[in-house]
Write a structure and sequence with these properties.
By secondary structure, the chain is an alpha/beta fold. The chain has one domain: TIM Barrel. Helices cover 42% and strands 16% of the residues. The protein contains 12 helices and 10 strands. It has helices at residues 22-34, 46-49, 51-61, 96-110, 129-142, 155-159, 180-183, 186-192, 214-230, 234-243, 257-266, 273-284; strands at residues 7-9, 39-43, 70-75, 77-78, 91-92, 115-120, 145-151, 169-173, 196-200, 248-252. The strands form 2 sheets. The protein has an 8-stranded parallel barrel, surrounded by 4 helices. Helix 1 (22-34) packs across helix 3 (51-61) and helix 10 (234-243) packs across helix 11 (257-266). The protein starts with 6 loop residues before the first strand and ends in a 5-residue tail after the last helix. The relative contact order is 0.12. The mean pLDDT is 97. The structure holds NADP nicotinamide-adenine-dinucleotide phosphate. NADP nicotinamide-adenine-dinucleotide phosphate binds at residues 9-12, 18, 41, 74, 121, 151-152, 171, 200-206, 209, 235, 251-256, 259.
């Protein structure tokens, strides 16, 4: 498996998108495996706390399916609708008590006893790195957790775990629609630690493909022109733009197998340097200095 093979995101599988049945999720997962995708991105909040159970139901339909995937499980967001949120305030909670409960809920929804990467979904200014590291190591010894990762952590936030716990990945928004991480030190800080950048919403959630949207309008003509040059459609070019960055894996969001197939192909190669900058220039609306 190449380390540029995209990660399949589950955010839009259920109530937050395609409303797939467990059967349809099982079929999608098997088709993804056939394409070489072996990593699935999950979060306890997806589908309003229903998508992990949907994936668990899909696993239950096909014996052996769970074992073929590496699971990334994100926890740490408490939504207004979350169970156990009496004040109804959307917030983050990286206390060991919350993480313990959220990991337990995740494992039981997925009907599994282990996740391959446990990821803190959002930075919480109250987080205590030493306490989290102790707890993660305990969970690793128990066999419930493989690696540790973070998501949406900036350069300073990721540094909090230095000397406490290796961070294998930082999952951040990264596309032609939002690439602040390339300028603000987040990408550098992630790479410096030997961590992988996992790029979420590589199509800007679909906005980049919509010429009527502000960002879609800015990149439309360049995508058309380059599409002819490289024989790639706009989505493939956008994905290849992200996949061209070093130590980066794209987290794709489509629920359609033909698009997932195209995404795997798109991520297999890099854009030439000048083509990469030409697209960045179109998205920024100005050349680099
Ligand atoms: N860590 C975080 O905070 C965070 C935040 C957001 C997302 N994520 C992860 O990142 C994953 C991807 O995010 P995303 O869904 O926003 O990604 P995305 O790839 O930017 O957007 C996917 C959306 O674009 C649509 N789309 C339209 N035309 C397409 C085409 N030609 N090819 C592919 N897709 C097309 C898809 O619809 P169809 O389904 O109809 O193809 C889908 O609705 C999520 O599933 C989740 O796992 C993480």
């Amino acid at each position: 498996m190449s380390n540029t093979t995209p990660i399949l995101g589950s955010m839009r599988f259920g109530q937050w998108g395609a409303q797939l049945s467990p059967q349809a999720v099982a079929e999608l997962l098997e088709a993804a495996l056939d394409l070489g995708i072996d990593t699935l991105d999950l979060a306890d909040i997806y589908g309003g706390h229903t998508t992990n159970a949907l994936v668990g139901a899909a696993f239950a339909l096909r014996p052996g399916l769970r074992a073929r995937f590496k699971l990334i499980a994100k926890i740490g967001i408490v939504m207004t609708s979350s169970p156990d949120n009496p004040r109804g305030v959307h917030h983050y909670d990286l206390s060991v008590e919350h993480l313990q409960r959220a990991l337990g809920d995740t494992l039981s929804a997925l009907d599994t006893d282990r996740v391959d990467t446990l990821m803190l979904h959002r930075f919480d200014p109250h987080l205590q790195p030493a306490a989290i590291a102790d707890w993660v190591r305990y969970k690793q010894r128990q066999g419930h957790v493989g690696d540790f990762g973070v998501s949406n952590f900036d350069a300073h936030a990721i540094a909090l775990f230095d000397g406490h716990l290796p961070v294998v990945a930082n999952q951040i928004e990264l596309s032609l629609a939002n690439n602040a991480a390339l300028d603000d030190g987040t990408q550098n800080a992630t790479r410096t630690r030997g961590s992988t950048v996992q790029a979420w919403s590589p199509l800007g959630g679909g906005d980049l493909l919509d010429p009527q949207s502000q960002i879609g309008g800015r990149v439309h003509e360049r995508l058309q022109a380059m599409g002819h040059e490289f024989g790639l459609d706009p989505a493939a070019l956008l994905l290849r733009w992200v996949a061209s960055l070093p130590a980066t894996r794209v987290v794709i969001g489509s629920t359609k197998i033909e698009r997932i197939r195209d995404a795997v192909h798109a991520c297999e190669a890099s854009l030439p340097q000048d083509a990469w900058y030409a697209l960045w220039e179109a998205a920024r609306g100005k050349a680099v200095p």
